[in-house]
Amino acid sequence: MTIKIQRRSLLKGGLAGTVLSILQRPKSTQAHNIKKYPDSYGVLVDLNRCIGCRSCEAACNKEQGLPEPNTPFTDQSIFTPDEHGQKRRTDATAYTVVQRYDFPGQDHPLFKKVQCNHCLEPACLTSCFVNAYTKTPEGAVIYNPDVCVGCRTCMIACPFYIPTFKYSSGFHPRIMKCIFCYDTRLKYGKPPACVEACPQEALLFGKRDDLIKKARRRIENKPDLYQDHIYGEFEAGGTSWLYLSPVPFAEIGFNPDISDEPVLDSVKNFLAIVPMVLTIWPALFAGFHLLATRKDLQAQTTDDTSGEDKR
Amino acid sequence: MKNIATNLNHLPIKSSVKPDGSLWKFKEQLLLGLPFPDYMQKVTSSWLNRVLFVIVSVGLFFLCQRYLFGLAMITHASNDYPWGLFLGFGLFAMVPLSASGFLLGTTVIIFGRHDFESIERLALLNGLLGYFFAVVYLEVDLGMPWRLAYPMFVSLGPASVLFLVAWHVATYLSVQIAELLPPFFLWINRPGWIHYIKRITLGLTIAGIILSTLHQGALGALFTYAPTKIHPLWISIEFQWIHFFCSSIFGGLSMVIVSSTLIHHFMLWRCSKKFTSDLDRITLGLAKGASYAIFTYLIIKLVAIAHDNEWEQLLTGWGAYYLLEIGIGAVLPMILFAKAVRDRQVKWARIAGFIAVFGIVWNRLNTSIVCFNYQLYQEIPHWKEIWVTIAIYAIYFITYRFILYRLPIVFDWEEENS
Fold it and tell me: What does the alpha-carbon distance between residue B418 and residue B407 come to, in Å, rounded to a whole number?
């Protein structure tokens, strides 16, 4: 057996492969462009108006058919931090929760409703390897339990700690998260149950673009009352749910480390190298193999004594 | 099993043919050529087996609980820490420690270093079992383990990093099975079939390199989905995949050193003369490679800190912990490996191997659990979760030993070259 390979042809092939791979645009990053829907809905949460009545929680519980909680929705003791010193968070029985923040010197606490922010470029969606998540044109990020494998990467990826897992089920576990009441309301252009239930009009439903304008107006009209910032306008690539607050957002549990780029951007570094490795490695290592074993080959060809292959 | 070799001179089995000329039966091979009562007596008389039995049987009970009533039965069911020990240890630590297969494959097949041949099969087996049990751990952790094949065939999310991991681990598992078929063919007395594998060995090995580069890196890239949750010292958006890939190189080499050390110490009766006599030289060779790899790893770690300008972080408590991890988990084994190579003292290479393996596990647990949610609270896994993790590792150990006893991994089959 003789393999005829010359250094020139090897270099030629290797060079051609490299050029080809550079010319190729990394496919994986292209696949990610998520269409931003211009007419999508959103909700503006005005923390100045929230009184912590938890009506939104009750409405959500009923609308989504979630299990009844241990204590009634009027129970205020629920706001005390848990055993880890953490505020309340969403779990498999509650898609939305209200948190209380006490500030020394202030006569009343600040309440903050937490639910899925329905990102414009959702981290949960981009991290999912079975495409269980969909961003609908109406703005909701919905979840399909029929294909979910339960790997919980979406929970890792969500910068807002929103998706939760039904750990208590052996045969029907699933991700539990707010879906913007998509099936029952948003699909028909109706506001979600929590918004409808709010007695204080702390939640305002509308087109996201309009909400941003309205939020700006509120800030302009009462600059003493508001931080000059609409949380969610740009954070994590922008979210459908937007917040206005009287205190700096970092003081009420909004992570200031969350940048304006969608989470996907930090993953693209790796995704871009994938096609490169796939194209360059085979040629590179086959080349290494030929170089490393060339002495064996030479020994073989000289043994042949035909002499035709000597260089 | 120690005295199998000394009592009867036709044992241990290392050929398809008995001394009287007849073929070994399959059942006899399974029982290592011993009569059933003798075999059982040997199995049950070992204290190690008794301990393993207790660990595994309790662990299997917990697993039944988990599969019937959900993960909440054996874990803290945390929504803040979706990934616990099963992935933190089972996937993120087992996979780099199983890089040995592709590393030794590359050394022997691609670079033509046939002086490492006597350990190649052990490295391949170490790789295959590590990957296989990483999948087992995954099957414990997944909410719906019966849907394992969904990302391949039912609903595809090709833009996700995990999609790449799933495909590559699955493909690489098949590659490794193919690479390990020759000793299996010998064992089932089909030496002729090896020919078919030998033809595609080069292709398999190159496939192994590509798949390994990408999925070892992808495991690191998975954490770039959580750039705000992991402490900045343990996450580098640009370099995370290189950190994971590069550390898998010395992780895999160190794991082979550990495994071969244990085999040489506790299973000498099963080793061929060639394996035994080559081992010291090969261990030093592996040590050399490992120390280079750690050196490279440290440089990239440093570059990452410089790139993200995190020098100040080093002065905090987390920084001290980071330096401790780097110091014990990487710098110390690097120095010991280098010392072993320079002074030609295998003992130090072996000690360094154990430390480096510990260092890899420590680093992966830090990234996935300890330094994850560093702004929240510290999660300490449920004791049942720890137990099940150890129990699956015990099954891994038993399987590993079962194969080493029987298949020609560290010994030669007489029919191989005839």
Answer: 18
Closest by alpha carbon to B226, among A8, A126, A311? A126
Comparing CB atoms, the residue among A89, A129, A281 nearest residue B151 is A129
Q: Quick one: which of B238, B251, B249 has its CA closest to B301?
A: B238
Q: Pairing relation of β-strands A175-176 and A110-114?
A: unpaired
Of the CA atoms within 13 Å of residue A301, those in its CB half-sphere come to 14
Contact B150 A130 (CB under 8 A): yes
pTM of the model as a whole = 0.89
**DSSP H stretches of helix in B222-345:** 240-266, 273-307, 317-326, 332-343
Name which of A88, A156, A279 to mutate to probe chain B: the one with the most chain B Cβ atoms within 10 A of its Cβ. A156
Report the CATH fold assignment for A41-262.
Alpha-Beta Plaits (3.30.70)
Instruction: Name the burial class of residue A205, with classes exposed (0-12), middle (13-18) and buried (19+) by CB atoms within 10 angstroms of its CB.
Output: buried
CB-CB contact of A196 with A150 (8 Å): no
Q: pLDDT tens across B63-105, in order?
A: 999 999 999 999 998 999 999 999 999 999 999 999 999 999 9
Q: Does B154 touch chain A (CB under 8 A)?
A: yes
For residue B254, the Cα-to-chain-centroid distance in whole angstroms is 10
Separation in Å, CA B323 to CA B290, B313, B327, B335? 20, 11, 6, 16
- Residue B260 · residue B120 · CB < 8 Å: no
Phi-psi region of A114 (alpha: psi -120 to 50; beta: other; left: phi over 0): beta
Rounded Cα distance between A185 and A194, Å, is 11
**Chain A hits for B150, Cβ within 8 Å:** 130, 147, 149
Domain spans of chain A?
Answer: 7-30+266-304, 41-262
Check if the interface score ipTM surpasses 0.90.
no
Scanning B273-332 for CB atoms below 8 A from A yields none
For chain A, strand residue ranges (E) read 41-46, 97-101, 110-114, 133-135, 141-143, 164-165, 175-176, 203-207, 241-244
For B26-36, letters b (16+ CB in 10 Å) and e give eeebebbbbee
pLDDT in tens, B276-318: 999 999 999 999 999 999 999 999 999 999 999 999 999 999 9
Are residues B144 and A148, on separate chains, in Cβ contact within 8 Å?
A: yes
